[in-house]
Amino acid sequence: MRHGRVPFILGFLVAPVTLYSYFVLWPYVQTINLSFYQWRGFTKKRWVGLENYDRMLHADRFWQALEHHAVILVLLPLATIAFALFFAFLLNVGGKGRGGKTAGVWGSSFYRVVFFLPQVLAVPVIGVLFATVYRPNESGLINGVLLKAGLDKPIGFLIEKNLALPALIAVLVWQAVGFYVVLFSAGMANIPAEIYEAAELDGASKVSLFFRVTLPLLWDTIQTAWVYLGILAFDAFAIVSVLAQDNGGPDGATTVLGLEIYNNMQQNRYGDAATYGVALCLLSLVFAAFTLRLTRRESYEY
Amino acid sequence: MTAIIGRDAPGQRSGGQGARVVPKSERPRRKLNLAGGIGHVFLAIWALMIIIPLLWVFLASFKNTTEIFSSPWTVPDHLRWENWGRAWTKAHVGTYVLNSVLVVTLATFGTMLLSSMAAYVLARYKFVGNRIIYFLFVAGIAFPPFLAVVPLFFQVKQLGLLNTYTGLIIVYIAYSLPFTIFFLTSFFRSLPNSVAEAATIDGASHTRLFFSVMLPMAKPGLISLTIFNLIGQWGQFLLPLVLMAGARDKWVLTQGIQEISTSAGYEADWAGLFAALTISILPMIVMYMIFQRQIQAGLTAGAVK
């Protein structure tokens, strides 16, 4: 077995390591470097020090984007996890009887299949789908119904400044919930039925079952969900790019850092684009460190 | 009681207990139905929120513009397949779907091949630098492609691979490596040693051991990760937008659909847009209906420890 060991290891590693270094690692390093230069792509790079950062920190769109990330970071995980926990509980423990049965409500598997479905659709496709759902006249799904029901003027979901961002977040929640229902269901299936039975015998109501048994025992899974959704909140580029009015509009009301990177790139301002990239990177790291600290809490053994 | 209750699927927990309990629990059962009833309302509302938009798009894809505006909720008076034809040829949604299939199939295959090779070596061979290589790969999970997109564009350009399938496929592979390697490494570590030892004693070479013994043993993990990558790469938006912008005939679905949406607005061809949407959604739903168990397992593989 000693024979041919080194060539084998090298042979198996050379392609993945080369690809990864050239297309992933090196560009990451280059981004940081590039953020100190002014560069339009064709001319020589010009060292400008912290000028790009200075311009970024004085740009309204940057602060708007940060604010939107903060809003998404709060609303997306809260709404998604709340809905998903509620549904997962109903599907797994909701139909529990007094006769020692621990079962989900009737039709659980049907709901699980339907809820998960949006996961397999690409986000841009979902964006176009919701562009038709939200359309501000009687041909839009929601406004069509509301106008028939007697509303006198259509709601401009994506046109009104205050509605645009929540409307986008709603789409993200719509897509994400099913994934977390499945995730939490898997977690709940691992909680031994005896615990529920013991609690039931002690006279616990379904509400206290949820808060006293399910929630604490699922804490690790919820933590994972939070991290996943947080990462999603720092992206949101695809949905904003497809669904929002004129490039993160109206009037910058839905812009995110990813979109700013892309816009700067489109205008051949590569140094600025890299600077926004570094900002996004730092924010992701801060979020990661913050979550690790915040969610550290003793987990229950069972 | 404890002996009967398994810990497998949540729905099956109660085992064969029912028959003995039912007669005794007539009254509590009614209570259960009531609680279940309220739960059902919420579950049904959410299910409708998913089904209705999809069904509405599907119906509208057979209507003409007048019908879409005047009677959005009725079944179309006849099936206008010409909408689909227009979407397929004039709006090129067919080309976009086929491009996506081509790129994603090859990229996922490449990802799985390269990742399993690297993961296998990293999981089962001790050598200098093993840890460093592993951690470099794992670090890549934390950062989205966004952070690297500007230099990446120039790296690809330098190789002359902008606006080519090859370029896009290679970049998809490169960005799929970290998670796939991370997952498969732990999978290969968990495989038993005894089979590998037996094969070695029988004189199998390293390469043969990998392809004819270890890969087949890793099949469940490989399937999960294949599905994970297929769906992830199918939905990729930023990379094609940046790397494939100049070659319209090679666009993938995610960038094509946005264009279709915009131009449908200019031409007021709503029926064509609905048909294009249906063509992009329907194949995924059919695939999902067939493989839903595997797909759910594959997509959640990363999150369940």
From TrEMBL, chain A:
PROSITE patterns in the record, alphabetically? ABC_TM1
Which residues are listed as membrane-spanning? 7-29, 70-93, 113-134, 163-183, 225-244, 273-292
Query: What cellular component terms from Gene Ontology apply here?
Result: plasma membrane
Family annotation (InterPro entries): ABC_transporter_permease, MetI-like, MetI-like_sf
Q: Which CDD domains match?
A: TM_PBP2
Q: Where is the ABC transmembrane type-1 domain?
A: 66-291
Keywords on record:
Cell membrane, Membrane, Transmembrane, Transmembrane helix, Transport
Entry keyword annotation includes Zinc-finger: no
Q: Where in the cell is it found?
A: Cell membrane
- Membrane topology annotation: Multi-pass membrane protein
What processes in GO biological process is this protein linked to?
A: transmembrane transport
Family, as annotated: Belongs to the binding-protein-dependent transport system permease family.
Protein name according to UniProt: Sugar ABC transporter permease
State the taxonomy lineage. Answer: Bacteria, Bacillati, Actinomycetota, Actinomycetes, Micromonosporales
UniProtKB/TrEMBL annotation, chain B:
Q: Where is this region: Disordered?
A: 1-22
- TM region(s), chain numbering: 34-59, 96-120, 132-154, 166-188, 209-231, 270-291
- Coiled-coil annotated spans: none
Query: How does the record classify its membrane topology?
Result: Multi-pass membrane protein
Q: Does the keyword Cell membrane apply?
A: yes
Alphabetically sorted, this entry's keywords are: Cell membrane, Membrane, Transmembrane, Transmembrane helix, Transport
> Where is this chain's protein located in or outside the cell?
Cell membrane
PROSITE patterns, sorted? ABC_TM1 (PS50928)
Q: Domain named ABC transmembrane type-1: which ranges?
A: 97-291
Q: What is the protein named?
A: Sugar ABC transporter permease
